[in-house]
Amino acid sequence: MTEGKQAEGFKLMHYVSKDGEEHEILWNSRDGITPFVISSRGGVEMSHVDWPHDVYAPFFVPPVGMRIFVDLTLEKAMEYRTEYVAKWWNRDTGVGTLADHVRGWDGADQVERPRPS
Q1: In the chain, which ranges are E strands?
Q2: Is the pTM of this model over 0.85?
Q3: Segment 44-85, tens digit of pLDDT
Q4: Helix, strand, coil % in the chain, rounded to nearest 5
Q5: 3-state DSSP call for residue 73?
Q6: Which H or E run includes 49?
Q7: Which among 14, 6, 2, 5 has a CA at the least distance from the CA of 55?
Q8: Same domain membership, residue 90 and residue 47
Q9: For residue 67, which of 33, 40, 35 has the smallest C-alpha distance?
Q10: Is 19 part of a structural domain of the chain?
Q11: Does residue 52 belong to any structural domain of this protein?
């Protein structure tokens, strides 16, 4: 089987936090480049490590919940963000609402309240 044009295309890649406490395998679902550093689910910085042992897996089927790299159009990204903001805008998470946090930013007066679809 021939590998893609990008070295990390269609590969299972190992990411590890600096302290070694957090590990995660992510799948690159396309023939595209990936970031060297990502945030873990808990917000900890993790780096792509052990590159020579990345596994080429173009037909891999990720289990539910596994994070993967995908191509995403601007339109789809905007749709996802709009849904996210509509969901969290007025929901109190214990540290305030998203609306509360936005009010403290420069230009917050230009932010419109989202309308759920």
Answers
A1: 11-17, 23-28, 37-39, 45-49, 55-56, 68-69
A2: no
A3: 999 999 999 999 999 999 999 999 999 888 999 899 888 988
A4: 20, 20, 55
A5: coil
A6: strand 45-49
A7: 14
A8: no
A9: 40
A10: yes
A11: yes
